[in-house]
Amino acid sequence: MYAYIKGTLEEKAKDSIVIDVGGIGYKIFVSDQSMAKLPEVGETTKVYTHYHVREDNISLYGFLSNEELKMFELLLQVGGIGAKTAITALSNITPSQFITAIISNDIKAITKIPGIGTKSAQRIVLELKDKLKTEDAVAKAEEKVEIINDESADEASQALQILGYNKTEISKVIEKLDIKGKSTEEIIKQALKYL
Questions:
Q1: Max CA-CA distance within the chain?
Q2: Domain range for residue 25?
Q3: Which residues contact 3 (CB under 8 A, 6 or more apart)?
Q4: Extended strands (E) in the chain
Q5: Is 8 part of a structural domain of the chain?
Q6: Domain edge (last residue) among 33, 64, 95
Q7: Where residue 21 falls among pLDDT bands split at 50, 70, 90?
Q8: Considering the domain boundaries, does residue 113 fall inside one?
Q9: What is the C-alpha separation between 26 and 2, in angstroms, rounded?
Q10: Is the C-alpha dihedral spanning 92, 50, 56, 81 positive or negative?
């Protein structure tokens, strides 16, 4: 419903902010990492938003980047993961670390997130890895893009697709990078600077 909200930062609370847009204050829940990067009260800010509706609650969740928003929305697609757990995850792990953990089946990294146990972490990996494979198959059918041979670069490409980037732009960026000997996470971080 709301792609983003841009206005004057009026208030910072423990887990939420209020942004004034034309005399209307929007209460937006944010992660700890986003809270730390926000400007001072009184300055203009822009946050990408997710309009979350449940039968007993309607809330706005805000993110400083599209990558964080995409990670939040991916987590909400996993059975048993709610908005509070998803925002807590963003407070404890970056989108690139999260995607790397999914691709490499790193259950231990995901269980470090408060509120996520081993079974939930396994479900996250299972459901999101399957989603990645489905999105990858659709992308291959729609686009004829040269396949990247390097395993780390291929994993990075898949991770970036999960974050919402298309395969063509990812391939162009990865071709420009020096990826020899780089880990998947390093390639993702470098690529995000250009994307």
A1: 53
A2: 1-64
A3: 48, 49
A4: 4-12, 16-21, 24-29, 44-54, 57-63
A5: yes
A6: 64
A7: very high
A8: no
A9: 11
A10: negative
